[in-house]
Amino acid sequence: MDRNLSFCLLTHSILFLGCSLIRDRILNLLLDNKESYHFAFVACGSKNRNNFDCEEATVEAIRKSRELDKIGIMPIFYPRFDRTCINKLLNELHKESMKSEISKDELESPNVLYIQVAGDKECWIHDKLQKLDNYTKQIVFFGGIVSTLRKFSTDNFKTEEESIKTKENLMALKKWLTISEDAQLYFCYDYGEAAKTRAEQVQKHKTMEETKEKIEEILRIPFAFDDNIRDRIHLIPLTYALTGYPIIIGKNLFWNIILDGRSSSASVLLVRDSAVEKYHKYMQFALDMTNERISAIKNQHGQETKIEKDLYWEYLCPEIFNDGNFKEIKNNIKCLKELLLQERGIKL
């Protein structure tokens, strides 16, 4: 839990609302993440409008500013007697966050590390894939594989639109891999404990069988491609429960927000400048954790031991632990880690 919190605090600006900001575990973590900066709505002055003393409130605001600055929080002060202004501020923030167009000023600003590029991941992916060229050398879907990428080898579509987008995505990726001979395509999918956690977040009554069907769709993805390009499609199970889904397309890294609903309909952010390295490190950490976990599962694979109910999630698709498949997964993890290091300019 602390690792996930530390990552969120390091890579995201957090707005504290209704928080006392008295020393606790989260604030202790802030002391260890000096590079990040956050915000908080902070009440100031008297609770009674009639007794409000502007000079006294100013002194209080200066004192609190100094205290919060030590842990990287910028306070947004409001009169203690007027909480209605918080709703107005939040409404304005919401309006700004829903804007999908990127202004020239935003792109050129060195202070903007995250820019919302889409409000719906599935539609955004479809649009991006239709514009691929031979200058794009790698695509990495790191968790949250949407149905229009999963169902390349099935005719089981819920809608006509899903069918059309799936076929168009497949054709776009085939064309890209054909014209760009050194291009690499990674599908990293939730597995084991990560799949269990995500299923509970999205739909509490979702069964292991439904999750297994989705994973089996992903395992069949390579077979939708021609033999001459199939060896550049790499599958990796992720057993580490992610706090968001990174997507790499060429030199750009994007972050798909995980909320209570489906990630396919959630926002996508472009990650910029210094923040990119933090996400690369996060992906490497998730790969290390996965490598360790699947090795432990492999060691138990085939043993006639009683499996606890929760552990069945780690044996949803036992075929991935067969020697040939397992060796390929380990190699895919190694290659993706090397790619991430190269993107950070680290020589191997």
Concise structural overview:
This protein is an alpha/beta fold. Helix content is 46%, strand content 16%.
Characterise this structure.
This protein is an alpha/beta fold and 348 residues long. It is built from 13 helices and ten strands. The strands form two sheets. A seven-stranded mixed beta sheet has the order 4-10-9-8-5-6-7, sandwiched between helices. Helix 3 (54-69) links the parallel strand 2 (38-44) and strand 3 (73-79). The longest helix is centred in the last third of the chain and has 27 residues, at 274-300. The protein is elongated, with a radius of gyration of 23 Å. The chain starts with a helix and ends in a 5-residue tail after the last helix.
Question: Helix and strand layout, with pairings?
Answer:
Layout (H helix, E strand, L loop, with lengths): L1 H10 L3 E2 L8 H7 L6 E7 L9 H16 L3 E7 L4 H14 L6 H5 L5 E5 L2 H9 L8 E5 L4 H4 L9 H20 L4 E7 L2 H10 L5 H12 L7 H4 L2 E6 L5 E6 L2 E6 L10 E4 L2 H27 L22 H21 L5
Parallel strand pairs: 1-2, 2-3, 5-6, 6-7
Antiparallel strand pairs: 4-10, 5-8, 8-9, 9-10
